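During the second year of the project, the team shifted from modelling isolated chains to modelling whole assemblies. The rationale, set out in the original proposal, was that interfaces cannot be judged from single-chain predictions alone. As a representative example for this report, we include one of the complexes processed in the last quarter. Its constituent sequences, exactly as entered into the pipeline, are reproduced here:
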Amino acid sequence: MNVARTIDAFRELRSGLPEPVGFVPTMGFLHDGHLSLVRIARERCPSVVTSIYVNPSQFAPTEDLADYPRDLNRDLALLEEENVDLVFAPEEGVGLYPAGFDTWIELPTIASRLEGVSRPTHFRGVATIVTKLFHIVEPDVAVFGQKDAQQALVVHRLVRDLDFDIELVLGPIAREPGGLAMSSRNIYLSPNEREAATALYRSLQRVERLYTAGEHKAENLRHAIREVLAAEPLVQQEYVSVASPADLSELETIEGRALVSLSVRIGKTRLIDNTVLPPGEPLL
Amino acid sequence: MNVARTIDAFRELRSGLPEPVGFVPTMGFLHDGHLSLVRIARERCPSVVTSIYVNPSQFAPTEDLADYPRDLNRDLALLEEENVDLVFAPEEGVGLYPAGFDTWIELPTIASRLEGVSRPTHFRGVATIVTKLFHIVEPDVAVFGQKDAQQALVVHRLVRDLDFDIELVLGPIAREPGGLAMSSRNIYLSPNEREAATALYRSLQRVERLYTAGEHKAENLRHAIREVLAAEPLVQQEYVSVASPADLSELETIEGRALVSLSVRIGKTRLIDNTVLPPGEPLL
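Output from the structure prediction step:
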């Protein structure tokens, strides 16, 4: 496995990889969710590239950029076990945002909803770094996780609208025993908080059961989630959404597919989770 | 010469071209300025691609999108004479802006100055279509004209900030006898207006002489341009700028290079022109 710490070094190594190339971008501190995406890329492509970069432009000044967990050596050992061919792990200050950087990808509608309400510049940062990484890595296939469902929809729209010649593949949400969606930020949770956090998945399971039993009114499903979350005093609810995957507009009645998503705070930690209705349907 | 009218047809033909590929994007109604850019691409690359597309997103609703001159058959004949290998001339409604299109490239600082004052969404449209065309054409070299100097700076910034692996080359301004910069919009000018329009180049020549004689105060150079233009009653002045090529901020004193640029209206026609100081220095 090769590791490139600069764009030039990466391009040199990338040019020797057999096509097609599968790509899994990450912010590091890898867990089984990331590794499941790497395996999806591996199944589809003779070459697999992963990036590890905590992208500053998707964090607001008030957010946890400085505290975001990092462990490059551990990450590289995990990727080596997965037979990744090439890792792009730019050094701090390697110039992804050079002085005078002033070019941004904006998706005004889809980026302003759900996560965008409390994180108004987040998806601008995501779309911009994904575009940059796509230009550096030049993948044929890119694998993202459904855990970040809105991010997946933003990238899907980005690929379509800007004519990237890249196949986008989503991997399912990897969960801890108990149902908590895997996230690098789970490390912030105390044992009590981690227990309370299982309410997210429990609320989504309840919605799946209600939907399957015939409840297609979105407001009743949102209410069912809020009830489950309200039973956990440590959980502060943010949004609870039953929305169209096309543009994330909130639905009244579910006729086709729906993305059910929610965000909460538990102590200082912000957590998100989601499911697609009908259960088992793909998000994209 | 092959002509592709859809993205899929283009990609199929593009995949057979020997590398490196040089690319000249145009809005058609070609003149010798465009053809000089094609020749620059030809000198550098075994394969040359040109696009012909009047990009709606860079026109404001009040501008001349519907009236913009078009003559595809004439354009294709001219490109064939220049031994262009492949032309991307998407049909109207071929889907470069599909329903729900919502992804834009923004360069907040550089795009807001000069042309951006009277055309606030123009460079958003330019940067977005250039990004799309770069993803479709996948060129190694892209050739733009210095006539649209701010556009060249926007694309230069775009390529750098978003890590496009593309070499950007600028071609010099092609001029009519008398000095008028070639432009597809010159067809709008009456004979009297065309005569008046030579004042643009005369004003720039005066500035070059003054600079060479030692005048490095930007305000004195702007004043010299305004005097030449004011002598032509048909010319309505818009901006007259002596700015840093780095960010288009207006200069007080020219120490390094300067972009001297101006825009005017003559009747219904908007014209722009520019030169770089010291004379003969490259813009980029």
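Chain B touches chain A at residues 7, 11, 96, 98, 100-110, 127-128, 131-132, 135-136, 138, 157-158, 160-165, 246-247 (CB under 8 Å). The first strand of chain B starts at residue 2 and ends at 4.
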